[in-house]
Amino acid sequence: MKLTKAGMEAHIRAYFDACNSGDPERIASYFEPDGVHYFPPGMYGGPFRGGLEIGKRWQAAVQNFGSYWTVDHFIGEPETRRAVIEWTHFKRSQNTMLRGDEWYIFSEAGLIQEIRAYYASPQDRGLTALELGDFDYAGRGYPVKAPPLA
């Protein structure tokens, strides 16, 4: 399968829509079966391994925290099957927002093989907005409010 920049972006945005749905099978469909999602040390008990496991973990986040994710910016390089995004993660039931970026590696088949997540700050439970200091998120068009819980 020939990857295109537009196709990579559409795949990642559709994956985020699946994450927001909380449907583990739908989430898993965007990954190779042995796909891996890496996180900073000490977060979430380590990497999520396997598309269905990734789906189940995001299902739990939606159910337990009202999680909702946005893709804020995208850069893709089809020649190397790599992409990077900036994202926002709203934990609506905790009134908390996290920001970060992720590096994606796509398989030859056009599915996600690997995600490496980098967070803008440690998850300090004393803060309600976990993001870069003194960065004008609103001024640059980033979301600053989560949609209401259903």
UniProtKB/TrEMBL annotation:
Signal peptide: none annotated. Residues 12-114 form the SnoaL-like domain. InterPro entries: NTF2-like_dom_sf (IPR032710), SnoaL-like (IPR037401). Pfam families: SnoaL_2. This is SnoaL-like protein. The lineage of its organism: Bacteria, Pseudomonadati, Pseudomonadota, Gammaproteobacteria, Nevskiales.
